[in-house]
Amino acid sequence: MARVTDAQVKEIIETTIDTNAFIRSANLFVDNKLLNQGLSNDLLAEIELWIAAHFVAIREGKVTDETMGDGKVAFERAKMGKGLEATSYGQQALVLDSTGILAQSGKKRGIIQVVGRNE
Fold first, then answer.
1. Mean predicted confidence (pLDDT) in 41-45
2. For residue 64, what is the DSSP state?
3. Which of 1, 12, 16, 48 is the most buried (most CB within 10 A)?
4. Is 64 a residue whose pLDDT tops 60?
5. Residues near 63 by Cβ (< 8 Å), separated by ≥ 6?
6. Whether the Cβ atoms of residue 30 and residue 42 lie closer than 8 Å to each other
7. Helix (H) or strand (E) holding 91
C-alpha cells in the first residue's frame, strides 16, 4: 500500500497529471529495495515521495527558465541511463537513503563467465 498521496507529490512537483501511477511504481521500488532494511516507515514514506516526483519529472520535465518577452522556456529533462541521479527529486531520495542501497541499485555489476575446456 502506498505511503504517499497524489496531493503530497504535487506539493513538491508542479504538475496537473494524476500521479497515482508514479506513486504505485515508487511504492513497489521502495518496498523491493528498502523494506526490512531498518528504516522507519516515516523515512520510507519520504523516500517514496521523492521517487514518485522523480518519475513524474522524467515524464514531464521541469521548467527551469521562463521569459515572458519573446517567449523563452527551458525544461530540465532527465538524462536516460542515469537512474535517480537524473533529477533533483531522485537525488533527494538518494540523500535520504542512509543504507546506500538506492545508490548501488543503479550500478551495473560485472559478470564473470568461466568457460571450461573439454580435453
1. 98
2. E
3. 48
4. no
5. 14, 73, 74, 75, 76
6. no
7. helix 88-96
